Amino acid sequence: MIKVIALLLLLQNAASGEKYYLEFDNFLYPGVSNFPEFAMITVLDGYLQAYYDENVKHINEDWLKELIKENTKEWESTVQESLAYKNTLRELTKNFNTPSNQSEGKDIIQQITVCEWDEDTNYTFGHIKFGNNGEDFITIDTKTETWFAVNPKAKVITETWNAEEDSYGIVKNFFQNECQPLLKKFVKYGKSFLNTKVLPSVFLLQKSPSSPVTCQSTGFFPDKGIMFWRKDGEEIHEGVEHGDLLPNDDGSFQMSVYLEALKIPPEDWGRYECVFQLSGVQNYVVTKLDQDSIRSNNPKNEGLLTTTSIAVIATMGCVIVIIIVALSSTAFKKRNVTHSIERSSTPSSETASL
Length: 354
Known about the structure:
The protein is an alpha+beta fold. It has 2 domains: 2-194, MHC class I-like antigen recognition-like (Murine Class I Major Histocompatibility Complex, H2-DB, Chain A, domain 1), CATH 3.30.500; 201-305, Sandwich (Immunoglobulin-like). It has helices at 2-10, 62-70, 72-92, 155-163, 167-194, 307-328; strands at residues 19-28, 38-44, 47-53, 57-59, 109-118, 124-132, 135-141, 146-149, 201-206, 213-220, 225-231, 234-235, 240-242, 246-247, 253-259, 272-278, 285-288, 294-296. The strands form 3 sheets. The chain has an 8-stranded antiparallel β-sheet, with helices on both faces. Strands 9, 10, 13, 14, 15 and 18 form a 6-stranded mixed β-sheet that branches. Strands 12-11-16-17 form a 4-stranded antiparallel β-sheet, with no helix packed on it. The radius of gyration is 23 Å and the shape is elongated.
């Protein structure tokens, strides 16, 4: 379960304004050790809300627990239907298996179902796609109401699906009568959670005088933040390297940005600042490049957190993530979502299944 949850954290997306989306991910892991044969996760605006398999049930947020408490029978019914979907998904994707894996039963299938809702305009949209062993396989074209083979291997399968009577009608019914109502209910209960803004703690790290200076931020929420170095108030790119956005155990996030300070004359250090911006928050976190405030493993700063410590932790986390992605093969190409914020101005379960 922990591995699947960690994987989901990698697949987070960003929401914008009053637009929301609810995502259901169904997984088949036949023959994969230490993974359940079938698992499903529920994501609201990029944040994990629930994980279920046949042995484990995990609810991530208090607001969802409250929703379940007030809608217990409806939720339990949805859970049972969703778990029973394993057999449907297995039958639906039985021809996904590649010849080399048919005897071993080790193909990994993922189905991603997403419905979106614009609260201001009441516009709704739905999307479904399938992945096979880490590759995009099949998606649905809602304009033509047909299935489309992203991978040439899936062409015969989509031809069969499109030939079936009312194939799209089943999908449309799910979006309108199950996914969209559930999304609106989730937003009703979870809106305060979605509107939560928490600024990070920011500090400077340096392994040695010749090492880059790391500007480390941690504890911010949501994940819609950016960091950059600037000189005399202008963002710079030369000598700057950006680290990855990583999740913390408490649901918050961390990130870092590095500066090649060795090339900067000591008298110019005061002209440089590390800036953190969180979307929707007017106040920025600004940290000046100052030798006295840098935490390092030099004798004068003995006992303080070092860049090495952060690097080891980050490296371990990345290794785990790489193993998860390689094992689950579910990191197939999702829709591109940017976490960028305009820098030129201040930013004024279970699931029911098809």
